[in-house]
Amino acid sequence: MKTLTYFLALCLATTTLLFTGGKSCPHDPVLTVAAACHQVSGGQPMLELCTKTLHAAANDKADAVSSYAYRGAAAAVQSCVDTERAGSQLLRNPSLPKQLQAAYNHCIDRYGVAHKKINAIGQALYSCGFPKTFRQDCADAAAAIDDCARNLQAADPSSPLYKLALTGRELTAVTCSLALLGEAGH
Fold first, then answer.
1. Is 43 left (phi over 0), alpha (psi -120 to 50) or beta?
2. Among candidates 102, 101, 109, 57, which has minimal Cα distance to 83?
3. What is the pTM for the complete model shown?
4. Per-chain mean pLDDT for the chain
5. Please, what are the domains in the chain?
6. pLDDT of residue 20
7. What is the dihedral of CA 131, 134, 136, 141, to 10 degrees?
8. CA 161 to chain centre
9. For residues 49 and 42, what is the distance between their CA atoms, to the nearest angstrom?
10. 127 burial class (0-12, 13-18, 19+ CB within 10 angstroms)?
């Protein structure tokens, strides 16, 4: 448990250093938050999450979509940290049923993968250097979170971790969609 706490603290410190500020890539379309979110959202919940996430860090001026994607990546990484931390706290309950213990441990493992992939996405956005693996990193991050969510839904869909996983999945989708709307998609 001490190692996990240290790992989460290290991840949070890395995330803070990596995602301070914003970054605009050349040749990206410049849009308002509302326009960018409308283009990448697959429905009202995703639109609201995108708008809320981007308005928290943006002034009301138009900006490059890579800058928005970078902010989304920061929120997605923070979501990973929060979910990993929540899973660890839930595992401290000695009366937790074995099925939930297994589901929570599985989620923490899968979120380790998602966290790593979303960090890679953030680094690509920061450098405006989109490797051939960019789309795969997006797919891998989403798949890891989806795997966690499926296990939680089967074990206990009322778990607080399940809601966190759904939000993390949407943040990852928004981030990757924004990046692919810009230079990463070319």
1. left
2. 109
3. 0.84
4. 86
5. 2-185 (1.20.140.40)
6. 41
7. 140
8. 14
9. 11
10. exposed
